[in-house]
Write a structure and sequence with these properties.
about 220 residues; mainly alpha; Hypothetical protein af1432; two-stranded antiparallel sheet; 10 helices; 2 strands; binds fe (ii) ion
Length: about 220
């Protein structure tokens, strides 16, 4: 039960090795099959893709963000919702679901990487902020910048990264609700085998540049 304070990353989690998946398509099919409420207009696949769009954008302006973690967070963070209500424990259930996917060999990676992704998913709906770990901060900020879909203006107090906290970013974040990338593009930054792990996953310059031009 996520009732304690967000613990932050353990000190010994500094050695990140990278995340990978057995198959991007297999992962997507598995999550679609297991998701508790995938058709929701507020918290279903469309929202997951919008979170990925915002996350990729934040990463453009925030050093040391791991794109594979951002993509997997986007796909999984609301996957175990049961309804569109408060659903207090959906972050916890999604974190447990991540453990199942790791145990089944669908997702793999270093211990620190899995731990960081699990923390980001588990605590994402607990109003936590993490100004120290850019990747976790970008995950949560990407979700919160999409609050515009509920008619809620994101509050800088609950944003972790300096870029997301900017008034200009908050005011223009509605752009993420329009035409989010397809899963093939979102998941393309995740290597499909540990031996193909890459430290700097390929971005999608055309989309990023297009969004950047709207913020200028
Ligand atoms: Fe959520
Ligand atoms: Fe969400």
């Amino acid at each position: 039960m996520p009732t304690d304070e967000y613990p932050g990353l353990p000190v010994n989690s500094a050695n990140f090795e990278g995340l990978y998946v057995a198959s991007r398509k297999g992962l997507l099919n598995r999550v679609r099959s297991d998701a508790g409420y995938p058709g929701s207009s507020l918290h279903g696949e469309q929202h997951w893709r919008c979170v990925a769009s915002a996350a990729n954008f934040i990463a453009e302006y925030t050093p040391n963000c791991d794109l594979a973690t951002l993509s997997l967070f986007s796909l999984l963070h609301d996957s175990m919702r049961e309804d569109d209500g408060y659903d207090e424990f959906h972050g916890q259930r999604a974190a447990e679901y991540l453990d199942t996917l790791v145990d089944d060999g669908v997702i793999g990676g270093g211990e620190a990487d899995i731990s960081r992704l699990r923390l980001a998913i588990y605590w994402h709906n607990q109003a936590s902020v993490d100004p120290k770990d850019s990747t976790i901060g970008a995950c949560w900020d990407a979700d919160r910048l999409n609050l515009w879909r509920l008619g809620i203006r994101p509050n800088a107090r609950y944003l972790s990264t300096e870029f997301a906290q900017r008034e200009n970013t908050i005011n223009q974040a509605m752009i993420f609700l329009n035409s989010p990338p397809e899963w093939e593009e979102i998941l393309s930054c995740i290597p499909e085998h540990p031996k193909t792990a890459i430290s700097e996953p390929q971005r999608q310059p055309s989309r990023v540049q297009k969004i950047l031009s709207l913020f200028r």
